[in-house]
Amino acid sequence: MSIVPVAGFTPDATLLAAAQKEGTLNIIAIPTDWCGYGPMITAFAGATGLKINSITPDAGSGDELTAITSNKTNAGPQAPDVIDVGYSFGAQAVSQGLLQPYKVATWSTIDPKTVDPNGYWYGDYYGVLSFAVNTSVIKDVPTDWKDLLKPEYAHSVALAGDPTASNQAIQSVEASALGNGGTLDNAQAGLDFFKQLQQAGNFVPTVGGQGTLASGETPILITWNYLAQGYADKLAGNPAIKVVIPATGKFGGIYVQGISAYAPHPNAAKLWEEYLYSDAGQLGWLAGYCYPTRYADLVSRSVIPQALSAKLPDVSGAVFASAAQLAAAKTLITGNWKSEVGVSVATAAP
Amino acid sequence: MTAPAQTLIQGAPKARPGRRRWATLLGLVPFFLAAFLFMLLPMAFLVAGSFQDVNGNLTTQNYADLSQNFIVDAYITSIRVSLATAVAGGVFGFLLAYAVILGGLPHFLRTALMTFSGVASNFAGIPLALAFIFTLGHVGFLTLFLRDTLGIDIWAHGFNLYSEIGLDFTYMYFQFPLMVLIMAPAIDGLRQDWREASANLGATSGQYWRHIALPILTPTLLGTMILLFGNSFGAQATAYALTAGQVNLVTLVISDQMSGDVLHNVGLGYALAVGMVAIMAVAITLYTILQRRSERWLR
After folding, report:
1. To the nearest whole angstrom, how far is the Cα of B184 from the nearest Cα of chain A?
2. Interface test with B, best of A72, A217, A222, A334 (most B CBs within 10 A)
3. Which of A105, A155, A239, B243 would be B138's cystine partner, CB 3.0–4.6 Å?
4. Domains of chain B
5. Is the pTM of this model over 0.95?
6. What span, in angstroms and rounded, lies between the C-alpha atoms of A276 and A104?
C-alpha cells in the first residue's frame, strides 16, 4: 500500500513501524459525517498504511464502554482500540479500569481544563448547542431560548434525542436552564422551560434529525452546532437551514478520547491519537465545524486557513459544565423528565 | 398364515425399529443446537448478569430496583400497549383475512393483501416511525391533504401521533399483517361444506360462527394474538424514534441502561429483561390454559 503523507502530521518512525506491524486500528461509534471524521479517517489510512475497522458508527458513549468491557479477553475485530465518549464517561471509564494512560507529543498545548492530569483521557473537540432552523418553514428565525416560547413556533421545536438516554438531549435541557434564569448548578430551570414549551404547544416530542428538520415536522431542532452545520451543508439549500447560536445560554459540550486498556492494537491506537492531536487532525475537526482542544495554540501560530475561520460560529462566552455539575444535572433531568414533561395518556398535546 | 391376515388389520402402523430412531434424532440436532445457543445460553447470561452490579459484584439490588415507580409504570404501559395492539391487530387482521378469503372478493385482492402483509409485518423501527411522521405528523402529507383538500384537521380534533395512542396506531402497521399471514391458512381450513351443512340443518349465520367456525379457529386466534403481544412487547426502535422515549416502555428503559449516553446500569437492564421473560411466560401459560379449553371438543 502506498503511503500518502499528510501535511501537518509527521509520525514518529518507531511508533509508525510498530503500528504498521499491527496493521489495523479498531475505532468505534464514529459516524463519518460527525466532526469531519470521514476525510480524517481516509487521510490517516493513507498516511500510515493502516486498515481502519469502524465498529458500530451509530453507537452511544455507553455502548463504547460496554464494548471494551465485553471484549477484555478478545483481541478480535469487535474490541475497540480507542474511544470517543461524552465528557462524564471519561471518569467512569477510569473507575472501571478500562483505559490506559498516554500523553501525545502535543500534550502541553491541549487546553488543560479539558484533560485528565494523569493522561487517561483527554478532551478532543467541543461544540455548542444551537438551533438548526428550516427557513423555508420558519420565517422569523429565533435568536435565543426565550424566543422559542413564542406562539408563532407552535409544533416546531424538537430535541435530537431522548433526555433520559441521549447526551445531546440532556445537555440541551441543561443549556435551556441557562437561557431561563438558571445556573449550571441547578438544571431545574431547564425542566421548567421544557414544561412551558410543552404547554405552549411548541414542543414536538419526537427524535428530531436531518429528515424531520428538512420535512418541516421539526423545523427548529436543538442540536450541536457541528451537526446543524453539517445538515445545512448536506441539504445544500433544499431547504435552506440557518444555524443559530443562542444569545444567552451558550452551552459547550466536550467529548474525550481514550485508549482502551485492552486494546488489541495499542501502537496503532497511539499513532491515531498522535494524528488527532497533530495540526492535521485538529484542522480536520475544525473542517467539521468542531472546535478542537488545541484551538488556542493553532490560532496563536496562525495555522488556520482564513476560509475555514470564516465558517466557524462565534462561541465566545460559551460555558462548560464541570463533571460534578454534569452528573448532578444528569440525575435531576433523567429522574424528573418523564414526570414533569412527559406525555401522559389522558391528555393529547395540542 | 398370519402375514396376509396382518395386512388386513386396521390400526396403528408398526412402531419404527430402534436403529432408525438415531437418524431421526440426528436430524433434530441443528434445531436443538440453535435453540441452545440463541435462546437458552443468552437467557442464562441474562439471569447471571442481572445479579451483578456496575462493578461486577454479586447483588440483588437490581431486582429490588424493579419496584421503583417508573419501572412498574413502564411494565404497565408496555403491557397496555401490547394488549391493545394485539387485540386490535388481531381482530382487524382476522376480519381482513376472512374478507379476502371467504368473502367472495376477487382473487387478486387476496394475493395483493398477502404480498403486502409479507412486507409490512417486517417493516418496523426507525423507517416506520419516520414514515408515520411524514404521513401523519403536523405537516405530514396525509394531514395536509385532509386539511387543505377535505377541510378536516385531525390534529385540531385531538389526534396526536406523538402519544401512546399514536404509538399503538404505528404498531398496528406491522401487527395486523402478521395476523393476516398466520390466519390465512387457518381460514382456508374452514371448509365450505361445513357452512352449507349447518345452513341445511337450519343454523343462522350467528349460530354457525358461535358453534362451528369460532371453536375451530380459536386456538389459532389466541396463539396468534399471543404472538402479536410478544411482538409488540419487544419493540423498541419504533417507540424511541417516534416518541423520543416519552411513552414509558420497558424496552426503552432497558436500552437506556444498556446503550444510552446517560444512564448505565447494565445489571438493571438484565433484571428488566428477566422481568419481560417472566411476563411472556405468564402470557404463554394463560394461552396454553385457554387453548386446552378451546381444543377440548377436538380430541
Report:
1. 34
2. A217
3. A155
4. 66-298 (1.10.3720.10)
5. no
6. 9
